[in-house]
């Protein structure tokens, strides 16, 4: 597949890294020649320096025979014009654009993206994706990472194991025997910095960070088995009233369980706009780093603080200060991947990576086969892929034990009709089933082959 990626920032670079690693023909375009040079030097991609919306630049990038263009520059308008030029001048079949401004996301304007108007096939909204990720973190406070699959019927939980975990030093196959009715499976383990897919005989040790698939109805029990307490979040403090913070506050105050939200925003005008947009939440105008403001927000009684300003360091420091003042759970928005190793040392409970959520959203629309969802783990080290099994797939009609999955791939959950099942060796994968797979980055091409539609399908 020939793909042009416009924008060599963090998102564009990661998408290029994924696709180039899977032997696609990738060209990356950016007005910053240094970023283009970095991508071309470190990845197996071609680089073009220039403005992505210019027809002459897209011509040089090979747009005439491109299969897809991904517009992920920092400008919404450039991304929109790039897709228009790719369509009108070069006839590129598939166009994906990242759009940040919420005004472009209004349902009222959905007709804007028709082929005869502004031909964008897929619109990705980073702020919306990040807000959803934040709500999921709050819903599972004991997990450092979480994502919903199978229409919300299954949950991926990232859990850090401590000394009091009841199932330490127990082979994974014994966990299945001990908790035979538990619909959960350990799909990935990070140990001493290395992420791997475990074997049935592998044990769990203190310090492991594991990824567990759980049926949505069994999440509470799963957390308890791995030594994690569950508690309803009744009081939440949000720092930052930008698009993400405001969207989270609106979602929380609209819930039926009446979560009490206090929103802190340093900019007075933005704080006033947030106060007008919210009905029950309290908006405080002040600096989230200010201890007096945090105390005014009753941070010592808060169940969670969510720091989502546009400054990573502020988010981390606000989280640290809130924990020192008695807040039970701290979640920080962190864009810079080099800051992630500091999170555990700073006692920040969880973080949200906007780049990873955006990359996951874009990848979902690139994969072969009938892929329904993708979630990127770590620094693009692995993916969780949700896909429907078609009649032409090599795995259709086979028992799991008879499928030659790569070593770095594990089946998470299987949905047959409306029933979600924990996988076992004798479970048969049939046409129409929806499977979730944990796959290390190096094994993703083989997973795509196993899920891919054959040419006969067309």
Largest sheet, in brief, is: 6 strands, parallel
* Global structural class: alpha/beta
Q: Which radius of gyration do the C-alpha atoms yield?
A: 23 Å
User: What is the overall silhouette?
Assistant: globular
Distance between the termini: 17 Å
Number of helices: 14
What is the strand tally?
A: 24
Q: Tell me the quaternary state.
A: single chain
Strand order of the largest sheet: 3-2-1-4-5-6
Portion in beta strands: 25-35%
Helix content range of the residues, please?
Answer: 25-40%
- Poorly predicted regions are 453-458
Mean pLDDT: 89
Can you describe this structure?
It is a single chain. This protein has 458 residues and is an alpha/beta fold. 29% of the residues lie in helices and 26% in strands. The strands form five sheets. A six-stranded parallel beta sheet has the order 3-2-1-4-5-6, sandwiched between helices. The longest helix has 14 residues, at 126-139. The chain is globular, with a radius of gyration of 23 Å. It starts with a strand and ends in a 7-residue tail after the last helix.
Output the keywords.
458 residues; alpha/beta
List the helices and strands and how they pair.
Elements: E1 2-6, H1 10-21, E2 25-30, H2 33-42, E3 46-49, H3 55-60, E4 68-71, H4 76-88, E5 94-98, E6 122-124, H5 126-139, E7 145-149, E8 154-160, H6 172-178, E9 184-191, E10 194-196, E11 209-215, H7 219-225, E12 235-239, H8 243-253, E13 260-265, H9 268-277, E14 282-285, H10 291-296, E15 304-307, H11 312-324, E16 330-333, H12 342-345, E17 350-352, H13 354-364, E18 370-377, E19 382-388, E20 398-399, E21 409-416, E22 419-421, E23 428-429, E24 434-440, H14 444-451
Parallel strand pairs: 1-2, 1-4, 2-3, 4-5, 5-6, 12-13, 12-15, 13-14, 15-16, 16-17
Antiparallel strand pairs: 7-8, 8-11, 9-10, 9-11, 18-19, 19-24, 20-23, 21-22, 21-24
Helix pairs in contact: 1-13, 5-8, 5-13
């Amino acid at each position: 597949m020939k793909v042009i990626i416009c924008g060599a920032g963090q998102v564009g670079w990661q998408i290029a890294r994924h696709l180039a690693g899977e032997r696609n023909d990738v060209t990356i375009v950016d007005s910053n020649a240094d970023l283009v040079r970095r991508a071309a030097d470190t990845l197996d991609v071609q680089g073009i320096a220039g403005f992505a919306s210019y027809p002459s630049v897209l011509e040089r990038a090979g747009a005439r025979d491109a299969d897809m263009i991904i517009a992920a520059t920092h400008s919404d308008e450039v991304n929109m014009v790039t897709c228009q030029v790719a369509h009108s001048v070069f006839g590129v079949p598939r166009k994906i654009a990242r759009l940040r401004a919420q005004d472009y996301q209004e349902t009222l304007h959905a007709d804007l993206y028709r082929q005869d108007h502004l031909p964008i096939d897929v619109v990705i909204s980073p702020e919306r994706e990040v807000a959803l990720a934040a709500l999921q973190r709050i819903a599972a406070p004991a997990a450092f990472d979480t994502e919903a699959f199978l229409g919300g019927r299954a949950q991926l939980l990232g859990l850090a194991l401590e000394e009091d975990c009841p199932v330490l030093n127990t082979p994974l196959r014994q966990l299945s025997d001990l908790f035979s009715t538990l619909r959960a499976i350990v799909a990935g383990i990070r140990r001493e910095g290395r992420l791997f897919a475990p074997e049935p005989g592998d044990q769990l040790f203190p310090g492991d960070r594991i990824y567990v698939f759980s049926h949505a109805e069994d999440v509470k029990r799963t957390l308890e088995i791995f030594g994690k307490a569950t508690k309803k979040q009744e009081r939440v403090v949000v720092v930052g009233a930008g698009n993400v913070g405001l969207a989270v506050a609106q979602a929380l105050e609209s819930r039926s369980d009446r979560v009490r939200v206090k929103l802190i925003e340093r900019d007075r005008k933005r704080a006033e706009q947030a106060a007008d947009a919210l009905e029950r939440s309290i908006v405080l105008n002040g600096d989230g780093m200010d201890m007096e403001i945090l105390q005014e927000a009753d941070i010592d009684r808060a169940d969670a603080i969510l720091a989502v300003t546009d400054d990573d360091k502020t988010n981390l420091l606000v989280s640290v200060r809130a924990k020192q003042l008695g807040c039970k759970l701290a979640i920080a928005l962190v864009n810079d991947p080099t800051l992630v190793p500091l999170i555990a040392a700073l006692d920040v409970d969880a973080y949200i990576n906007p780049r990873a959520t955006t990359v996951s959203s874009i990848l979902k629309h690139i994969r072969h086969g009938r892929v329904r969802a993708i979630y990127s783990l770590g620094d693009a080290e692995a993916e969780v892929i949700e896909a429907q099994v078609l009649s032409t797939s090599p795995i259709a009609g086979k028992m799991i034990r008879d499928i030659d999955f790569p070593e770095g791939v594990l089946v998470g959950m299987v949905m047959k009709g409306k029933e979600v099942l924990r996988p076992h060796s004798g479970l048969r994968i049939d046409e129409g089933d929806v499977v979730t797979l944990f796959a290390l980055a190096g094994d993703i091409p083989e997973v795509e082959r196993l899920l891919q539609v054959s040419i006969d399908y067309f």
